[in-house]
Amino acid sequence: MRLFVVTDRVVRLLCWGAGLWFAAMVGFTVLVLEPLGLGEVLDRRIGGYGVADVQDYLAAMTPEGLKRLGQLQAMDTVFPPLLGIAFLGLMKRFQGVMRGLWLLPMIYCGLDWAENAAVAGLIGAQGLTAEAVAQASILTQTKYGVLFLAGLAALAARRRGLR
User: Fold this and answer.
1) Where are the domains of the chain?
2) I want to staple 101 with a disulfide (CB 3.0 to 4.6 A). Which of 47, 70, 112, 153 is the partner?
3) Alpha-helix runs per DSSP H in 60-125
4) In 3-state terms, what secondary structure has residue 29?
5) Considering the entire predicted model, what is its pTM?
6) CA-to-CA distance for 122 and 56, rounded, in angstroms?
7) How far apart are CA 95 and CA 60, in angstroms?
């Protein structure tokens, strides 16, 4: 007996939910964080960042900015699994070797959470190390690479009617 069936309607709702949640996060960043002088948050920097970038970011951090950034980080904890589950729903009918693509949304989710933890560690650190910054930056870049591949797989599934 199945308690929950992933119908096309459920998949559409998941996709809409992920899109709206992402829009809320971007809106929060633009309307709340950027006016506080924080600029672009570290985990939105697709090209990565270095020690000087993180030092500049931390120098602009105020107590209010830190509080608001914590709110964004809480939102960003929900987003990766929401998007990952939406992508899995789009790929639900993949057969054979194509099922291996199911790993991409799960890897993305794990990378995003690891990156969030690494960035939070940078913000709370007493002293920055080049290694810690490099690790966070690599996680950011890798997250976006895997997200791109997962998105392509989800779009391919959608275009082939494998919703």
Assistant:
1) 8-159
2) 153
3) 63-90, 103-124
4) helix
5) 0.85
6) 12
7) 50
